[in-house]
Structures are given as structure tokens and as C-alpha cells.
Predict the structure.
Amino acid sequence: MSRRIALLGATGSIGRQAIEVIEANPELELVAATSGSTPIDGLAPLTQTGGDPTELLERARPDVVLNAVVGFAGLVPTMWALEHGVTLALANKESLVAAGELALAAQRRGGGALIPVDSEHSALFQCAQLGDPESVVLTASGGPFRGRTREELVHVTPAEALAHPTWSMGPKITIDSATLANKGLEIVEAHFLFGLEYDRIEVVIHPASIVHGLVRFRDGAAIAHLGYPDMRVPISYALTYPERARTPVPPLALRTLEFHEPDTETFRLLALAREAGERGGTFPCAYNAANEVAVRAFLEGRIGFLEIAATVEDVLERVDGRPARDLDELVEADRRARELAERRA
Ligand SMILES: NC(=O)c1ccc[n+]([C@@H]2O[C@H](COP(=O)([O-])OP(=O)(O)OC[C@H]3O[C@@H](n4cnc5c(N)ncnc54)[C@H](OP(=O)(O)O)[C@@H]3O)[C@@H](O)[C@H]2O)c1
């Protein structure tokens, strides 16, 4: 098995860990890499910083596209890989949440594999090799503010929100983990990846981040996936699927595991994502766009922590959520939601 990998978002948290995985495996070859603005000359035979990566992907002819871009900017490589039947190892959940049906239609036309890199969805994907899921459980660490009340969250700072207890990740997903928007995006991601209705996708708080996901089958059996919180495992799985390559992650030692109900009153973005997913159309796209704008405003000190959810809720009330018939309409829905969010934030 020799695989040519195109890595989009090579300078990020996932991107750097992906390079580590690729360098440790002689059967994986990095043929192309991109970044947003950080120079990466010499990192791969073909590199690009900023701009549309389509031409780079055409020239690179990869076997696998690993999309580790952050945010809606990851839409182009997601759609390119799905449309061309090239295996897509997807970390960039935002593109699948926003594009939804259009992405699945592109995958049906292209006929390639879509392998999640998100640890929870990688876990569910692996469990689902054993049968068709009746329902799934996504676990959430609960982030740094688990157990706090709304009053206690009014004045939290970006630095406090960036201190995640179990995962070390890029800034946007770390804030999303503190608001539970990350788990909200993951509910929608699971809906599209596994074809499950929203009432079959459950979220539980599991502070240790050892159980990544659980699939229930119709015979009453449930299979869970366990491991230390280390993204090199799902990255390696997605790049070598259906094989399993060795990683430096140690064997798991068992201990007591706790699970709690999430507090959707305090962490509104979890409930809002589910609602946006159930309403369908471009509501998930608007949710994602408004959240991206609000997270940036919070990180720049322009709005408070609780205003991230308030901004998203407000935008969802204002957009029409009409389904996008093509990518142009999707990009327009994203733009409109961003504009509304910018005005509010
Ligand atoms: N980190 C994790 O553990 C983790 C776990 C599960 C899922 N994910 C998902 O993986 C994705 C990446 O997360 P991350 O934590 O690795 O993010 P990150 O550390 O912020 O890295 C983002 C990457 O995307 C590039 N980028 C930013 N804006 C871009 C643009 N407009 N066009 C092209 N490239 C752009 C960045 O390049 P520059 O360095 O040049 O800005 C960087 O390489 C996200 O969708 C996240 O939700 C991450």
C-alpha cells in the first residue's frame, strides 16, 4: 500500500500531527501541502499558501486528500475530493455541516470514500464496520467550563476558554469545545456521515475523553471505541484505512469512566445546532457561519462568551434557511449569515 497524500491546512494542529504520522510511515507520501498564510515552501513537492487549491490538487493527483483547514474555507478541497472520487480524510467538519446534501450528492457522483478524522466520528465509523447503527452516542469532554452556570460564564476570557482540559487543538475548535458548538457541529456531521435522523444521535458528557463514541445495534448490543485523546490515532486510521499502522500512542489503561447529561440551557449552541440540523436546508450553513464570526469576535475581545450563542441564535432567526441548489447558492447563504453576524457582533 503506497499512498500519495495532499494535506490541506498543513501548518495547523491537525496538519502538524498529520505530518508526523506521514513521516513515520514509509508507505505514505506527502505530495502536496497548503496553508492559509504561513509560508510552507519545501514542505512538499507542491505547496501553496492561500487561494483556491483546485489547480494544486489537479496537479498533485493524490490518492487521499486530508482536509485539515479550519472553517468554511475548507469547502473547496472537500468538494473537489468528493466530486473526483478521491478518498477524503475529513477533519474539516465545517464543510460537511455547511454543504450537507451537496457534499453527499458529490460523493455519490464521485464514488470515493469519506473517512472522518474527527475522533468521535472516526470512533463511530470504526464501530459501524460491525453493522448498521440504530443510534449513536457522541461523547464530549464538556470543555473548561463544564458545571458552570450562565452567571459564571458572563466574564470568562479568551485565555480561560482556550485552556482545554483534555485536548490540545487549534484556537477555533478549542473555543467551540468551550461553548459546545463543536459537539453541535458534530451532531450535524454524524447525521450526514451515518445517515441517521437527529433523534438517533445522542450526546453525553464524558470528562476523561477516553470513550470517543458508541454505536447501538438493533439486537441490543452496543460497541464503544476507547483510546487516549490523541489525534494521531484517527489521523493514522484515516490515512491507512482499512489497515492499522503502529502509532506512538501507549496501550490504554482502564479506569473508572463517568458520563453525564449535557447542560443545554447553559450551553445553548448544542441545542441550536440540533435545531438547525432538524430544520435542514441552509440552517446548518448559517449556524456554522455565524459561529465562525462570533468566535473570532470573542477571541478579539469584541464580544463576551455568552454572546457567541446569542449571535448564532439571532442569525438563525433572521435567515430563511432555503436549501442551496448549488455551491453558488451555498456560498451566498454563508455570506449572508456572516454579514448578519458581523452586524450583531
Ligand atoms: N485540532 C484538533 O485536535 C481537531 C480535532 C478534530 C477536528 N478538528 C478539525 O480540524 C480542522 C483544523 O483544526 P485545527 O485545530 O488543526 O486548526 P488550526 O490549528 O487553526 O489550523 C488551521 C489550518 O488551516 C489553515 N487555514 C486557515 N484559514 C485558511 C484559509 N482561509 N484557506 C486555507 N487554509 C487556511 C491554517 O493555515 P495558517 O497556519 O497559514 O493560518 C492552518 O494550516 C477544523 O475543522 C477542526 O474543527 C481539529
Observations:
- The CA atoms of residues 11 and 51 lie 15 Å apart.
- The two ends are 49 Å apart (CA to CA).
- The chain has 14 helices and ten strands.
